[in-house]
UniProtKB/TrEMBL annotation, chain A:
Glycerol binds at R83, E84, Y135, D245, Q246. PROSITE patterns: FGGY_KINASES_1 (PS00933), FGGY_KINASES_2 (PS00445). The gene is glpK. It comes from Micromonospora orduensis. This is Glycerol kinase. Pathway: Polyol metabolism; glycerol degradation via glycerol kinase pathway; sn-glycerol 3-phosphate from glycerol: step 1/1.
From TrEMBL, chain B:
Residues 5-67 form the HTH iclR-type domain. PANTHER family: HELIX-TURN-HELIX TRANSCRIPTIONAL REGULATOR, ICLR FAMILY (PTHR30136), HTH-TYPE TRANSCRIPTIONAL REPRESSOR ALLR (PTHR30136:SF24). May be an activator protein for the gylABX operon. This is Glycerol operon regulatory protein. GO terms for biological process: glycerol metabolic process; negative regulation of DNA-templated transcription. InterPro entries: GAF-like_dom_sf, HTH_MetabolicPath_Reg, Tscrpt_reg_IclR_C, Tscrpt_reg_IclR_N, WH-like_DNA-bd_sf, WH_DNA-bd_sf. Residues 68-252 form the IclR-ED domain. It comes from Micromonospora orduensis. Keywords: DNA-binding, Glycerol metabolism, Transcription, Transcription regulation. SMART domains: HTH_ICLR (SM00346). It comes from the Bacteria. GO terms for molecular function: DNA binding; DNA-binding transcription factor activity.
Length: 507, 255
């Protein structure tokens, strides 16, 4: 018997990656291709969905060739994708009607302000678990309908289709105009604001609120089931999973039990906590989202804390202040001093996300004295990520009633030892990095392999998870309490920086 | 006596020219000053740029001396950079071998552990990044000494501590072991520090083949070695593959 493998496609914000995994969950090969970022106007971010589809056609064969395997040895394909990014395309030609609007795009800010004052806004929030924000797909889709002549009528007639990236890829993989399957999964659907979080279906009131024709929406399926068989790229292979990237990381970290949490440290950071089969509504600024759903089983929900600026603060320190020449050097610089010297940096570059959600806040550096060196600033940069993690964890504990006992971490910043130790110190629980760092891709592969019986059950997946490093809290309680209070006072100093008149003028 | 290597004398001239110039210089200016063809000057300057001795100004496109020249006396690769660049290769080495993996560099005559991946068996283990190991009694250390004459001499002139009966403590045995490591391209340690423990390591190389660290695994001697007490060839191959992969990432051409 020849060995078989699971292939994952991670359609991310900057690139599309294909990874081949073996039965033990080990990475066998990787192929990756970046796509262009388009910034046509301030605040706008677009991708060419056709370029992304072409890249899938390039990276998948390359990953298979590197692994030395053929399509017949692939048990299943799983997809993880950048969330919320919105594509609308022509059902007959397969051509997008407009560039894809990416999750960071803020062109809908005035639309969102108006919608927030419309009747039914509070009901919507209860139903979908999300606050009205430019971040989610619903407002982006409404914007496209408003700004593309004739699109609304075509959508009503079912001539154009809406989807996030996984829908777009699955439709193309299964034939495109020639019988392509138009579907999404519960995790991606939970980021549109259009889905009823409990019933897991499109809600007519939500569609009416945004003015979106039901005919253009994909069918909502579970995250782990055989959706269909590919006819392009990997003909004959079953497509068996789709998850938003952060949910895929939760799955790849095998956070299957209520109370399990993971944090992915990248440009921004995303902490997701498994809350079990009941959605938990947040009163502390967190998002309620679907974590995953396996076939016909009940959906598992998650609370999500999104932190806007973590890794990008290190990039700012490198590229704008030019105090280091590479990101890892921040650790070297930070180790030239023993503590922060009383200095704190709160990176509210475009306001503060979870748990504060203060759009008028702006960043501050406080506690400056003539004693402060660039080493202290480097410490303050790293500590900002630690304290922001702590704030989100506190909100999660308060909302869920579950007490976090360990934090599973992944992403590029986990290579920073000083930072990971600091996160353990301030969150006051052990921080654990798993052996396979590519948790997003692994999660999609796991969900796909599970659906086709490549892996038997969640227990089997859990046994693939091994800690590669573990940082245990070492900070003295009194020091932690005092530092935390200092951080909170620093955060307060960011509030109300943008004056109300200036905000009104921008609206 | 072998003749001069022309491109090296030209590179030295370019560095002197940039050092004596008050501002930045363009390729044309460099080529004219040294009476070189523009293509020749460009090739040399680009190579000097790759190794960090020359920097190009982003807006004007002109060249100046690079920051790396100022730090010639210190280690040219930041240890945190080394960890960051090797993390994706150290994990698979631990997964494939089933043993704990460490990456080390020399610091004041000791081996500084810059990265540590746990043995993938879910037992409770303690991260020992930042700890110091004896260079003469570990596979990592012996590999690092094999490519650092100064550090090797310092260890041999000191009094290497005998941890076990097998620890290499004389200049003669240690020197022979280091020669063997250079010949093989990897090294091992069998019960030289702790009874029942063994390790295998290989050098990590940067630009021009300069050894910047070592990567290795360690574990119980009966798992790391075969019945004849030789390091298992499969494990040696895993370690060397990982070392080569990191070296390639760091820009070493031949390894």
């Amino acid at each position: 018997m020849t060995d078989s493998y699971v292939v994952s496609i991670d359609q991310g914000t900057t690139s599309t990656r294909c990874i081949v995994f073996d039965r033990r969950g080990n990475l066998v090969s990787v192929a990756q291709r970046e796509h262009q970022q388009h910034f046509p106007r301030p605040g706008w971010v677009e991708h060419d969905a056709l370029e992304i589809w072409r890249n899938v056609g390039k990276v998948v064969p390359r990953a298979l060739a590197q692994a030395g395997i053929v399509a017949g040895q692939v048990a299943a394909i799983g997809i993880a994708n950048q969330r919320e990014s919105t594509v609308v395309w022509d059902r007959r030609t397969g051509v997008p009607v407009a560039p894809a609007i990416i999750w960071q795009d803020t062109r809908t800010d005035t639309l969102v302000e108006a919608l927030a004052r419309a009747p039914g806004a509070e009901d919507l929030r209860q139903r979908c678990g999300l606050p009205l924000a430019t971040y989610f797909s619903g407002p982006k889709l409404r914007w496209l309908l408003d700004h593309t002549p004739g699109l609304y009528e075509r959508a009503e007639r079912g001539e154009v289709l809406f989807g996030t990236m996984e829908s777009w890829l699955i439709w193309n993989l299964t034939g495109g105009p020639d019988g392509g399957l138009h579907l999404t999964d519960v995790t991606n659907a939970s980021r549109t604001m259009l889905m009823d979080l409990r019933a897991l279906g499109w809600h007519p009131d939500s569609l009416a609120f945004f003015g979106i024709p039901a005919a253009m929406l994909p069918e909502i399926r579970s995250s782990s089931e055989v959706y269909g068989t590919a006819t392009a790229v990997l003909p004959g292979v079953r497509i068996a999973a789709a998850l938003g990237d952060q949910q895929a990381a939760l799955f790849g970290q095998t956070c299957f039990a209520p109370g399990d949490a993971k944090c992915t440290y990248g440009t921004g950071s995303f902490l997701l906590l498994n809350t079990g089969t009941e959605p938990v509504h947040s009163s502390h600024g967190l998002l309620t989202t679907v974590g995953y759903q396996i076939g016909g089983q009940p959906a598992v929900y998650a609370l999500e804390g999104s932190i806007a600026i973590t890794g990008s603060l290190v990039q700012w320190f490198r590229d704008r202040l030019e105090l280091i020449s590479s990101a890892p050097e921040i650790e070297t610089l930070a180790r030239t001093v023993d503590d922060n010297g009383g200095c704190y940096i709160v990176p509210a570059f475009s306001g503060l996300f979870a748990p504060h959600w203060r759009s008028e806040a702006r960043g501050v550096i406080v506690g400056l004295t003539s004693y402060i060196t660039k080493g202290h600033l480097a410490r303050a940069v790293l500590e900002a990520t630690g304290w922001q993690t702590r704030e989100v964890v506190d909100a999660m504990n308060a909302d869920s009633g579950l007490e976090l006992t360990a934090l599973r971490v992944d992403g590029g910043m986990t290579a920073n030892n000083l930072l990971m130790q600091f996160v353990a110190d301030v969150v006051a629980v052990p921080v654990v990095r798993p052996m396979v760092a590519e948790t997003v891709s692994l999660g999609a592969a796991y969900a796909a392999g599970l659906a086709v019986g490549y892996w038997p059950d969640l227990e089997g997946l859990r046994s693939n998870w091994h800690p590669a490093a573990r940082w245990v809290p070492k900070m003295d309680n009194a020091v932690r309490a005092e530092e935390r209070e200092n951080w909170q006072r620093a955060v307060e100093r960011t509030f109300d920086w943008i004056k109300p008149e200036a905000r009104a003028a921008n609206e | 006596m072998p003749g001069q290597v022309q491109s090296i004398t030209r590179a030295a001239a370019i560095l002197r020219l940039l050092a004596s110039s008050s501002g930045r210089l363009g390729i044309g200016e460099i080529a004219r000053s040294l009476d070189l063809a523009k293509g020749t000057a460009h090739g040399i300057v680009r190579t000097l740029q790759d190794v960090g001795f020359v920097e190009q100004d982003k807006t004007s496109g002109k060249y100046q001396l690079g920051a790396a020249l100022l730090h010639l006396g210190t280690s040219y690769l930041d240890v945190n950079e080394l960890r960051s660049r090797s993390i994706n290769w150290a994990d698979p080495l631990a997964a494939r071998s089933g043993e704990a993996v460490r990456i080390g560099t020399l610091l004041d005559g000791k081996v500084l552990v810059v990265h540590h991946v746990f043995r993938p068996d879910d037992t409770l283990q303690t991260l020992d990044v930042g700890s110091l190991l004896p260079p003469h009694a570990t596979a990592l250390g012996k590999v690092l000494l094999a490519y650092d004459v100064g550090a090797a001499n310092a260890v041999m002139q000191g009094e290497p501590e005998p941890y076990t009966r097998r620890t290499l403590v004389t200049a003669r045995t240690l020197s022979r072991a280091l020669t063997e490591i250079r010949d093989n391209g990897w090294g091992a340690e069998i019960e030289e520090m702790t009874l029942g423990k063994a390790g295998i390591a290989a050098p990590i190389r940067g630009y021009g083949g300069l050894v910047v660290g070592a990567i290795g695994l360690s574990g119980p001697v009966d798992r790391v070695c075969d019945a004849q007490r030789h390091p298992r060839p499969a494990l040696v191959a895993y370690v060397r593959d990982a070392a080569r992969a990191v070296s390639r990432d760091l820009g070493a051409a031949r390894w």
